[in-house]
Amino acid sequence: MGEVTESGKRVFVPLDRVRMVGVAIYSALADVDPDDPTPSLTTVVLACAAQPGNVRSGELIEHTDLSPSGVSQLLARLESAKLIGRRTGRPPDRRAVTVDLTAHGRRQLETRLSRIPEHLARLRPGLQEPGE
What we know:
Blueprint: E1 2-6, E2 9-13, H1 15-32, H2 39-49, E3 55-56, H3 57-64, H4 68-80, E4 84-88, E5 97-101, H5 103-127
Antiparallel strand pairs: 1-2, 3-5, 4-5
Helix pairs in contact: 1-5, 3-4
């Protein structure tokens, strides 16, 4: 059983249910682009880039737990798919890279996020306790 603390209460959630939810979310994201080798990471980067202001590649390292070279490779793949655009910094730090979401990237993010509730709804009967 997994333990989740909510408002000071202890709530026990069977780990198989947590796994089912994770699989459903992953499936929802993977269905959008079956050729995407990392649908969860792609979605995280698109969601970060959709936030107001510019997201820096260094921030993406924190959000994805990837190495700097891993983030760089992911950004190159997303840029070649025209989901994001990258800009190099201005003096004094030209090494800084900011990431912007393209119109295509915004549509892709909206599609990915819209699929999650549908996939979770399919799980609802399996997530309920007997007698609920």
